[in-house]
């Protein structure tokens, strides 16, 4: 990654970033349709009314159906790429989710794929012609990689990230890049470079973070499959907030070489790349295409583990975490858990309670390991340009009592605590003997902007390095999800979270849950989720 110094003010650089992004959208021909000057609170259904039916006929297809149509010649790569370029442009104008549209890369690539298909009568690879959107911090050769910092506007990637190389060889078409927050450590997507990415279902609420640009874009069908990253919930949180599917894999299965940002000492909390998609099958498409390429042959840090066929027991045992012992979920999350548990039992699954095991200690450990340099690198990246600190950057670094500069002894202490906790949790799981755990993704649905300060329903599994699949279950209903009259807080955090609930404001917003498996059981947890989808279906009606 090369960086060129700049003496420009942060405001000038931010305007330059936004002007460049807009110019990439304005090069589309034909021009994307205009959106209303005054947008409704929910923009979720607007693409269907703004885009040509021929385009929405393509963008309404799930990734696996798109691939089938492309492989059979029913659809051309150019037609699919053009449709998603238009859809992504419209989605951006509705929710502010793009840093860059890539027609100059995507369309020539699509034409080459069509020429290959014409010549050989077959697709070039398993992802032939599939548009894939990319979170901005993944390196594209010759393109900027800011990771949300104004001071990084001059960072130019020298090569494509390893995961992009693999997906390209499999036939993918990269059509756009998506927004990220300042510091990459928000459950919100907001930066001084690009502003705030809002939720398609309610613009007063966050799309989530840090892969919130991906979550919002996929929800609006501006992409069938996107690449996010996750070190504390950054794939699962936006997937749940926006009502799409997401997978946080086990670390060291998906390549991370060539992404643009790594916190100082961040290998103490493994950050992973993973997919967000319009379908559950899309998650499998992504994982299998990458792992089948044997990426460990060129990125030695990866585990040499092929994608495996899973044999499940005759009766699958699901544990349910109703709350984490610190913060009770809001009424819609509780209802979604009850609905899922009931349907699981009726479908023949064994369902048991899964008591949380010292989840408060888990947060103390992981939040102490997030910034072993005491946040110096991030503070320097922010302050060097003069850009303002975003509220959630201040919260996670300056207001977090666990952020301290660690000497070797203190760092060793927290690493030993991490390993001891992982061992104790494995024993806890063994005692309960479950195949997977069903639990909340967060203490509520998509919250208002700058209020997403409770990570523990997702960061718990980052500390353990357990894979998790997120899927939409239902939507908030004011009639079904009233605030409890008999609420008694378990903690100060619980009392704070309780105050955030507003049934009227959240009405109609998606409610997602996550299914968690043990380390390296990515195939198993995804397979169980697929069986759940086949047997009970989701999302389902609230009734």
What is CATH's topology name of the largest domain? Amidase signature (AS) enzymes
CATH class of the largest domain: Alpha Beta
Helix-strand makeup class: alpha/beta
Q: Quote the average pLDDT.
A: 96
Estimated share of beta-strand residues: 5-15%
Low-confidence runs of at least 5 consecutive residues = none
State the major sheet: 11 strands, mixed
| Structural shape | globular
- Spatial gap, N to C terminus: 52 Å
Care to describe what's here?
It contains 19 helices and 15 strands. The chain starts with 9 loop residues before the first helix and ends in an 8-residue tail after the last helix. The protein is globular and about 60 Å long. An 11-stranded mixed sheet has the order 1-3-2-8-10-9-14-15-13-11-12, with helices on both faces. The longest helix is centred in the last third of the chain and has 25 residues, at 408-432. The chain folds into 2 domains: 10-251 and 273-297, Amidase signature (AS) enzymes; 317-535, Amidase signature (AS) domain (Amidase signature (AS) enzymes), CATH 3.90.1300.10. The chain is of the alpha/beta class. Helix 5 (77-95) packs antiparallel against helix 6 (103-120), helix 10 (280-291) packs antiparallel against helix 19 and helix 12 packs antiparallel against helix 15.
Describe the SSE topology.
Elements: H1 10-26, H2 46-50, H3 53-59, H4 63-72, H5 77-95, E1 98-101, H6 103-120, E2 131-135, H7 162-169, E3 173-178, E4 190-191, E5 195-196, E6 198-199, E7 202-206, H8 212-219, E8 225-230, H9 236-242, E9 245-248, E10 272-277, H10 280-291, E11 317-320, H11 331-346, E12 350-353, H12 359-369, H13 376-383, H14 391-398, H15 408-432, E13 436-440, H16 456-464, E14 468-475, H17 492-499, H18 503-506, E15 510-516, H19 522-535
Parallel strand pairs: 2-3, 2-8, 11-12, 11-13
Antiparallel strand pairs: 1-3, 4-5, 6-7, 8-10, 9-10, 9-14, 13-15, 14-15
Domain Amidase: 80-526
Catalytic activity: a monocarboxylic acid amide + H2O = a monocarboxylate + NH4(+)
Keywords: Hydrolase
